[in-house]
Amino acid sequence: MPDIQLLGIQVGTARPLRAGHRKVSSAIGKTAVDGPLLAGPLGLAGDMQADLAVHGGPDKAVYAYPAAHYAFWRQQRLDHGASLFDETLPHGFVGENLSIDGLLEDAAFIGDELHFPQCTLRITAPREPCFKFNAVMGFSQAAKAMVQSGRCGFYLAVTRPGPIAAGETARLVTGPRRTSVALAFAASMARRSL
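Now predict its structure.
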């Protein structure tokens, strides 16, 4: 299995977010961090989650997103008038803590582990989009586009706490390999639409 490259590491704090006619608290806005950060049982040092019912906790401590999907979102924003220019989206734009290269949802399985030099993260679940994702992406069909495309990324539990930094490489250690993130996401979205 190829190594996974950590291209960027991002954290955020809860801030007001305008979503349609509502104003809600959200920590989806993540900004890049230089240097190593401690990954602990509840996430990265300095990172917050505003709605602990759906984000955060030991099983959703860290959110990873394949950077390969950014071209898709750049085009989606252009197609829906959410962007006037073909702009490069910064790491963290989708709300992820870790921007990665080398692992997509169909090859990532629940229970697989990412072994970084000083910490280990276990894949636990796909990310499920909500109305806040639409607000950040700038068009009302963004969550639907995530569902249809399967470009969801995945949550991670911290099984070996320690520092982690952009530029590091992780080795994928496979788990039971029963359910891929892609399959878990499709099944979850099918249940939600019933």
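The mean pLDDT is 93.
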